[in-house]
Amino acid sequence: MSEPILKVEDLRTYFYSYAKEAFIRSVDGVSFSIKKGEVLGIVGESGCGKSITAQSVMGLVTDGPGIISGSILLTYNGKTINLLEGLSDYVSVKTRRKAILEIAKDVTGWLKRSEILMRGVRGKVISMIFQNPKSALNPFIPVGEQIAESIMLHSGISAKKEAIGAAAKWLERVQIDSPSMRLYDYPFGLSGGMCQRVMIAMALSAEPALLIADEPTTGLDVTIQTKIIELLKQLKEELNLTILLITHDMSVIMQLADRIAVMYGGRIVEYGLKREIMDSDSFIRHPYTIALLNSLPTVEEIKMKERLRAIKGDVPDTIILYRGCRFYERCDLKNERVKKRCKESEPEMIEIGTGHYMRCWLAEE
Amino acid sequence: MRHRLAPAITVYIMSDTILDVVNLKKYFYHSTGLFSSLKKEKSVIPAVDDVSFYLKEKETLGLVGESGCGKTTVGKLILRLIEPTDGKIVFNGMDMRNLRKSELRKVRSQMQMIFQDLDAALNPRMKVKDILKEAITVYEDLDYYTVNKRITELMNQVNLKKSKLGNYPDELSGGEKRRVGIARVLAVKPRLIIADEPTSALDVSIQAQVINLLRDLQEELGLSYLFISHDLRLVELISDKVAVMYMGRIVEMGLSDRIAHKPMHPYTNVLWSSLTEGGEKTISRGLSWQVFDFGQSVTGCRFHPRCEVFKARGNPKECTDPQNEPKLTETGTSHYVACHFPLL
Ligand SMILES: Nc1ncnc2c1ncn2[C@@H]1O[C@H](COP(=O)(O)OP(=O)(O)OP(=O)(O)O)[C@@H](O)[C@H]1O
Ligand SMILES: Nc1ncnc2c1ncn2[C@@H]1O[C@H](COP(=O)(O)OP(=O)(O)OP(=O)(O)O)[C@@H](O)[C@H]1O
Ligand code: SF4
Ligand code: SF4
Ligand SMILES: [Mg+2]
Ligand SMILES: [Mg+2]
Q1: Is ipTM over 0.85?
Q2: Which of A201, A343, B42, B330 is deepest in the core (most CB within 10 A)?
């Protein structure tokens, strides 16, 4: 129960902007681990690198340079493999005083190598619910067949008829109406929320050990959303399913997550148990986490139709190399004592309680 | 044949009505088996089934309902992206179904849709900059300088970094695509925006900025919105009126705070009561729900298999009478409900 199924260390996934002749540091030194049977929720601003982190784990980043360093350790069936094994043979990074001058990577070579490492892992051990289900499904194949194919690929079932039957069961479990008819629908004939549920069914039908769910419930109304969350909870109980959950919906986090990682500008800035991070009584939290939770509108504000509160300032540009804290410009909580440090050097991850980490100079005090 | 929803609605239609939807219908035909297209075995999905409403200038109508109930289809029908089975759509005094191509083009400059599907309106082979440029210049001839100024303004409005202008849609995060989609619609300067889940994929802070922006633009330019969303709290906040759909029909429509706090239709009640004080969703309610089956025909009120009032009243036969499907009727000032036993 307690050994990690996935351990990501110092993952860096970069892109290159030809227009700016600079690197986009989408994921910039991310580390976390998930224990078996646990749900880790990742929250954070749009564009902060959540999906790219997930795609890096799945080996799905194809644009260059892509993953440039780190390790992704996956443990299943008693053995541990590094999904980034041998990466350093394909990448060389030239730096000067911490700043990256040049990255040379054999992208196609690495992707070939990565495919070999991912074989037998993708789909079977780790499966993923993509953020945009309509584009993730094949538009030319009926959805039932798509699910059946995935079932045949990943489980013992080899008879098509049986697989179609199993697919119908999964459609029912994700609350699709008249599943026996929907099996034959193409994605264009389904509503946004239905495509999303088909995507969920497909990911779950492979019975993975680890599910990566990128915004699994956005297109769903409250009643169906509730049932999907119940289903995930049930699978977690029954099959010890581990989930990496990415979402903007705090109520989904509250219901499902055991631990939370808060990301900002390509980095994890806070990491810990859900109750410590979400509990408003807990007295040290990262200023970004506080600002994020503060921008949730209250019932009263909705009723009075007030103007909504947003975090002031601009989202960080991951092209720029920040010397200090990436949240500096927007941070309301930096005080006179730490201000100078905030501006000049970036804080490290500091443990502020058991298993509760934070990247902020205030934590040192 | 032309039916009016309720006499009162006709009375309310005044010159500042920008959109009038009357008895709109769209039926889809789905095969019921792999080879059924040969056997002509099809089942019918009444995705939009006799929907009527109107929208005034500077007004927002929220449209909510279960996933798959027909919301997006309503939006696409209004824009004439798909052809209705029956019914009428009048935009700004023009009957949308009788428009010629050139007229339709003109109308589309005044009416735009933010698509639920993040990729729908973004050409994968165009950079963000060109997507916006095309939208700005499609109905207007502008010089280089003005176009660039407008692009900068739009990027600021949706809080996108200018460094993203050179990205292709594939190189954007979900929320960045969403914001380009919104900027593209605003670029056209429409009078009516059909916003289908415009805040999905956005974090709460950027969501707040987008909602504030939409409200500001409405105030400044008198825009009208059809606001489709699963986020009931945002719907309550931004809408003047709210229409609740269930399986292709509007079952309740009224002022937004009435719908949110004094609902009359049992379905509306289930929807909103699933939001508790802290904004957290409770589980108890939705759980007793069964998967709906289009294959099984429902007689009378479509909601009766799931209706608590129906159960509590001991299965009254009005609710299952095929001749007596409840019609949307006015029960209070601008409040309409389709139920034989509305909650009071
Ligand atoms: N192929 C690419 N080329 C260049 N930049 C990219 C590419 N893919 C992603 N990015 C950038 O990387 C950043 C992180 O993207 P990511 O999709 O991980 O964000 P996210 O946290 O999932 O956000 P959202 O909540 O909006 O989905 C974004 O700013 C995005 O523009
Ligand atoms: N092009 C199409 N062909 C066939 N059926 C369709 C088509 N588009 C929609 N439908 C059907 O119409 C119904 C309503 O779909 P619609 O997309 O309007 O739902 P929605 O209310 O927007 O749902 P969601 O909240 O999930 O987006 C669904 O049952 C869907 O399967
Ligand atoms: S390090 Fe300083 S600027 Fe950054 S979050 Fe902490 S207090 Fe704010
Ligand atoms: S008409 Fe009857 S079944 Fe339908 S919503 Fe009203 S009480 Fe329920
Ligand atoms: Mg994302
Ligand atoms: Mg829809």
Answers
A1: yes
A2: A201
